Amino acid sequence: MQAELARMREISRAAGPAGAAPRTEDEARLRPFARRRVALGLVFAEILRARDIRPDPARVRARLEQMAAEYESPEEFIRWHYANPEKLSEVESLVLEEKIVEDLLATAEVVDRAVGFQELLGMEPTTT
């Protein structure tokens, strides 16, 4: 979790005013988000392992092409990603997340039930 917290601090620092020192309250504010991201990463990793999901090269290429369409030199953008394993890994992660969601939705059992207005607003967990 410390690595994720450090990554989030760095992103926050880069987005803030130049030369601004990190504040203690920033870390306290970021800690729950870092904990959630780490937990989601662990859940996703287990789903990938259990369902033997791998990044599909054709789908990664299609995602890169979609992203590259926004740039002046799309082919250069694509080549740059393939030449930088870290950047390519980021796109593969996006594709894997999409695949996990698709896989879960395809196998999910949907149960309709009536809920009260207050429960809906409060999103109170109930057992059915």
Topology of helices and strands:
Elements lengths: L1 H14 L8 H28 L5 H12 L5 H10 L1 H23 L9 H6 L6
How would you describe what is shown here?
This protein has two domains: 1-52, no CATH class; 54-108, no CATH class. 73% of the residues lie in helices and 0% in strands. It has six helices and no strands. The chain has helices at 2-15, 24-51, 57-68, 74-83, 85-107, 117-122. Helix 1 (2-15) packs across helix 2 (24-51), helix 3 packs across helix 4 (74-83) and helix 4 packs across helix 5 (85-107). The radius of gyration is 20 Å and the shape is extended. The two termini are 34 Å apart.
Helix content: over 70%
Shape: extended
Low-confidence stretches: none
Helix run count: 6
Gyration radius over CA? 20 Å
Count structural domains.
2
Strand content: under 5%
The span between the termini is 34 Å
Major sheet description: none
H/E element order: HHHHHH
Number of strands: 0
Instruction: Give the overall pLDDT as a whole number.
Output: 85
Structural class: mainly alpha
